[in-house]
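Severity: low
Component: inverse-folding endpoint
Summary: output formatting inconsistent between runs
Steps to reproduce: submit the following structure tokens with default settings.
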């Protein structure tokens, strides 16, 4: 009996980001997800370079070598990022998470750094088999904050470990043994920071094909607001002799590693063995130059308490070997030193790095842009208000409101933050003039937008009442359909115009085309 995997992979830009900084790879031996950071260009380059470095591992490697080979590739990826930044210092600060699996039959090597995740669905139970390398997770581990507090912590995305080319990389590495029927999920935090563990569990359990699973998971994240890029790789452990005959599936390359200029809202690769590979033959330096030539446009967290931890020894079929000790304290000390330097004004580089970040949030009921990090050190804020938009939080759809109130962070440029606000403008509960259901002109909020969560309610009725039957035939038709206006003031102006029209039709019906015949209106 020959054991192998059936796989699918997709990456989606989400609903608010200007570009896709995630990358993914899925092949018969290698699965990987990388979530880039450092701005639109830097994040794409970092995640794509990591995937490009791992791609040659998608070959038959002896079982006793897969752990060492995979770990060495991670170190090479980190060195590649160092070389890229050396060649282009403007990319300083870019980096990427990386979660990858290298397979040989039942044996699977797992490497992990950052806050992308790997899950295992086995015998109906879902296990999270990676540990987030985030400041918030470390505070949870140390008992300093609760899981509920972690879900809304302003720095829940602050990484303690990542591939960034700045020093020695320290990934978690383990060797595991798979079982027939296992289903694995690798994903970026654009999924697990929006979709709950229970919902992920249900989605993975309810569909038969990996391709169906990745599509459903991405759809769930977008329905939850899609505040970040979303990337999913799903693989089923199968008996290869039982699979339909045919050529082996082609590897899938998705996200920034496939094509950094996909249309918003379009998943980056059809998955299910579909080909992809825009990176072939391109060096990271060449890719950086190409990307930099492009015009610059600019959750409820998964509840870890609801997840089962994988027992290291209780399950003989799942062996965890030589997990690297997590030397978390050097990272925490490093962050503390940087933050103290920020307060003391002693580190221009660190301060510049903080000031190179932007986030979108709510302030006094408006959607605004802050520059810096959404946190305080020794009572001093690490951010300041940069721009105030004219967009009101209460005008947004419920999921967009939730995203803004949680803050949409990790935006690498002011242009990216402005682009995020432009996207939010397309997610408002619109103001419109329409019939109130009793033949009277009224002003609505969210008219016909129930599917987007809007209240679909009358906020003003014309007073004195304007009956639709007193309007011209064209205006009557428009009101029946609903006339969308930019805001309440414009809607009130429109109602006044309709009032004048109704008055003219009543007093001089022949002066306007389409006025109702006398005696035909109420």
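Observed output (run 2 of 3):
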């Amino acid at each position: 009996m020959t054991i192998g995997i059936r796989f699918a992979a997709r990456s989606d830009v989400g609903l608010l980001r200007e570009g896709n900084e995630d990358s993914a790879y899925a092949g018969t031996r290698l699965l990987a997800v990388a979530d880039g950071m450092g701005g639109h260009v830097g994040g794409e380059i970092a995640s794509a370079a990591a995937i490009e470095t791992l791609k040659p591992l998608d070959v038959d490697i002896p079982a006793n070598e897969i752990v060492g080979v995979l770990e060495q590739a991670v170190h090479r990826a980190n060195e590649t990022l160092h070389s890229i930044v050396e060649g282009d210092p403007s990319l300083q600060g870019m980096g990427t998470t990386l979660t990858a699996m290298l397979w040989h039959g039942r044996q699977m090597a797992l490497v992990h750094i950052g806050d992308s995740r790997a899950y295992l669905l086995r015998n109906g139970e879902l296990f999270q088999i990676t540990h987030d390398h985030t400041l918030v997770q470390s505070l949870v581990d140390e008992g300093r904050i609760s899981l509920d507090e972690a879900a809304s912590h302003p720095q829940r995305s602050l990484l303690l470990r990542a591939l960034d080319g700045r020093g020695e990389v320290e990934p978690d590495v383990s060797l595991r043994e798979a079982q027939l029927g296992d289903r694995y999920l690798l994903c970026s935090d654009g999924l697990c920071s929006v979709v709950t563990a229970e919902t992920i569990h249900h989605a993975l359990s309810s569909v038969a094909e990996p391709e169906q699973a990745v599509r459903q998971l991405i759809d769930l994240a977008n329905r939850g607001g899609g505040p970040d890029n979303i990337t999913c790789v799903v693989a089923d452990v199968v008996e290869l002799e039982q699979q339909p005959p045919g050529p082996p599936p082609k590897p899938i390359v998705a996200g920034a590693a496939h094509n950094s200029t996909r249309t918003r809202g379009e998943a980056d690769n059809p998955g299910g063995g579909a080909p992809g590979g825009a990176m072939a033959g391109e060096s990271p330096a060449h890719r950086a130059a190409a990307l930099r030539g492009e015009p610059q446009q600019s959750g409820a967290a998964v509840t870890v308490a609801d997840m089962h931890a994988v027992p290291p020894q209780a399950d003989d079929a799942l062996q965890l070997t030589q997990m690297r000790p997590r030397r978390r304290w050097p990272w925490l000390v490093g962050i503390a030193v940087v933050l103290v330097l920020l307060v003391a004004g002693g580190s221009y580089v660190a301060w510049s790095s903080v000031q190179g970040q932007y986030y979108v949030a709510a302030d006094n009921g408006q959607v605004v842009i802050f520059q810096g990090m959404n946190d305080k050190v020794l009572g001093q804020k690490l951010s300041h208000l940069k721009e105030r938009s004219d967009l009101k939080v209460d005008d947004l759809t419920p999921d967009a409101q939730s995203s803004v109130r949680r803050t949409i962070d990790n935006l690498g440029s002011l242009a990216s933050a402005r682009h995020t606000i432009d996207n939010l403008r397309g997610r408002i509960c619109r103001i419109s003039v329409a019939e109130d259901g009793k033949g009277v002109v009224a002003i609505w909020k969210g008219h016909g937008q129930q599917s987007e969560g809007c209240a679909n309610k009358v906020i003003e009725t014309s007073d004195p009442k304007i009956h639709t039957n007193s309007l011209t035939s064209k205006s009557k038709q428009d009101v029946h359909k609903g006339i969308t206006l930019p805001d309440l003031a414009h809607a009130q102006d429109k109602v006044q115009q309709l009032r004048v029209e109704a008055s003219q039709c009543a007093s001089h019906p022949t002066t306007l085309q389409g006025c109702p015949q006398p005696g035909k209106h109420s």
